[in-house]
Structures are given as structure tokens and as C-alpha cells.
Amino acid sequence: MPDQRRILARCDALARHSELAGGLTRVYLSREQAAANELVLGWMREAGMVARLDAIGNVVGRREGERPGLPCLMLGSHLDTVRDAGKYDGMLGVVTAIECVADLAARGKRLPFAIEVIGFADEEGVRFGSTLLGSRAAAGTFRHETLDAADKDGVSLREALRGFGLDPARIGEAARGREDVLAYVELHIEQGPVLEAEGLPVGVVSAINGATRLAIEIDGVAGHAGTVPMTLRQDALAAAAECVLAIERRCSSVAELVGTVGRLETLPGAVNVIPGTARFTIDIRSPRDGDRVAAVEEVCAELRSIAKRRGVMLKVAKTHEGGVAGCAPWLMEQIGAAIAAEGIAVRELPSGAGHDGMAMIELCDVGMLFVRCEKGISHNPAESITAADAETGARVFLRFIENFQPKATA
Ligand SMILES: [Zn+2]
To answer: How many Cβ atoms from other residues are within 10 Å of residue 19's Cβ?
Structure first.
């Protein structure tokens, strides 16, 4: 049986490698990441794996199957964090996967495939503003122009790699072959409140939602708050307020579609001045690309009509667009079977947050198992899971691994 106390203790141990005193911040290619990698490499070796750092800085451990050199089932998650993070987002998936391998090793059990555990070096993209660098390199989709990206101190990714003892010219060597990887399966905390609301410890992810991000600017006319009559105003903030409510209304009308205005600023921003400019962001996500694209189009049309009616200028810029990464039905079925075998109702749910699977899907089929977290909180020190849920997650994950059937024979 996987040891739930050791899983939680190892998440605690990783959380101690932080640049933030009294909290957790561990970014790509930092000193703290080097220390966390050393810990994980040690745990992998202790679990009977051959472990190494790959060319982009991912930690990779491998346990051979019934004979050496078989293609692998790849398990894992990421080891980097956001700023002032919780200690389970990412780390729980890596630590649990190692725990499952340790359990197999303790029983001397060999499977008809190899197992690899990967701790991705950069999922969150905090340092260089570009997400999924570790999994993109593993999937063979790393773009070399990314090497010129710089962190807030002006250190380029190229320089940071060298400082970490890695050779930027050899990143291509991190790419895996399609024939070597049977599937990529990740255990992760839900980061949402659905499982908790339904009283379920785990769930099967159906898709990682697609997302569109827009940057909006509304230009009206600034004026004196005391002298311009209400009927003669072109108030940019009042127009933005109407837009925010329109976005909320439109995105509430379709199941599993979500839309958020997360930032709003007004200029000049004085108590006695009518706002001349309002800038805000829109983030729209859905497990169905068609729903998302339709919502984005309709929201933009509605914003244009609000702007026209109010006599203000509207500028829309698309800052991000990414389609749905659908989890493979054959993997969902096998993960679901492992859940059902533990006597737990099988709940399928989409992931509203991004994950390494979005990159790995370019290489192989992807599956995910969600573990309930308290109040759906993540990216925050209050992120929390129970020991019982960590254990249930690990038991389900181990059962899935032991019963895993590659697609060709499934
Ligand atoms: Zn994560």
C-alpha cells in the first residue's frame, strides 16, 4: 500500500525549498529548484528507479518492466510553483507516482511496460512568462526562440540554463520518441470545488479546457465630475461596467463555460474626474472549443454594441488562445475502472486550469486523475488536502498503473 504519511511528509519537505521565507515560491532553474531536484532524484533511486536530469531540467526516473527497454507509461506532474504557492499543486502528482513505484518495487512486481516518473521543471511559467517549458521539451515542441526570453532581472533562459549546468544547444535531447511513451497520466489536485461539493475524493478529468484571453480598452472622454451633465458624458468606466455584466451573463448561459474579468483599471483615476479610459482583461474557458469560440464572438459583438450606444471607442486584442486538450477516452475508462474498484462513484469533470498534459498531448494520449482539495483553493498557501484523500488518490493511481493496458491491446 502506498504510504500516505510519506506522501504528505515529502510534499512538506519539497515546500521547504523556497525563495520566499515563510511561504513557498520555487521558480524554474533556481537554486531552490536544484535542491528540490536532488531530493526527488534521491526518492526515485530509493524506489528502485534509474534517475537523471534531462536537457531542460526535468527530473526523470525509470523502472524497467518485465524486460529492459520496453515502452513506458509516463506518470508525473511539475515541481515548480507560482509565487506564494500551496505545496500540493504539482508536487503531489510527482510524489504519489514515486510512492506507487516504490510499492511495486517493494513487492518485486514487474509490469509488461516500463514506468517513468517525470517532475516537470517549468509548468507555471512564473520566471520567463512562457508556460509548460518542461513538458514542451519532453514532447519535442520546445521553440528555440524561447531561449531569448528574459526574467525580471534580465537573465535570458539561455543564460539561466547554462548557470544551472545545462547546455541550451542540447534541449532537443529532452524530446521523447512517440514509440517510447504509451501514455502520459497525471495525478493533480482539482484546484476547484466540484469534488468537495459532491463528496467525492477523486475524479476523472475529461478535458483540459481551452482558453481565450482578451485585453480590452475603452476610450471615452474624461471630464469634470461636477460640470458635465449626465446626458452628455462618455464615461469609459460606466461602459466597462456594462461590459463586465454582459460577459457574466453570456458566460453563465452555457454549462461549463466560464468567463472572468480579472483586472480593471481606469484613467485618470481621480475622485472628481469622469473616467476617460478603462482597460480590462477577459478570460473565457470551456471544455468545448465550439462553445468558447461562440461565446468570444458574441461577447465581442455585445461589447461593440455597448460601445456604439455609449459613444465610446472599443479596442480588442487577443492575448492568448489555446484549444481543448481532450483526455483519451481509453485512459479515462481505465482510470474510471480503478476508481470504481475502490467503491467510489466515478465522476468525470473538465479541468479549468492548465496542465502539462496540454503539451504532452502532442506526443501521446493523456489522462488525469483529480484529487479533492479543500474549498477548491490553489495557487495559495491555504491549499490543502486531507491525508485520507492523499491515500485514496494513491490507491486509485496504483490500481490504475497495475491494471494499465496499452491502447493497442486495450
Ligand atoms: Zn499544477
So the answer is: 15
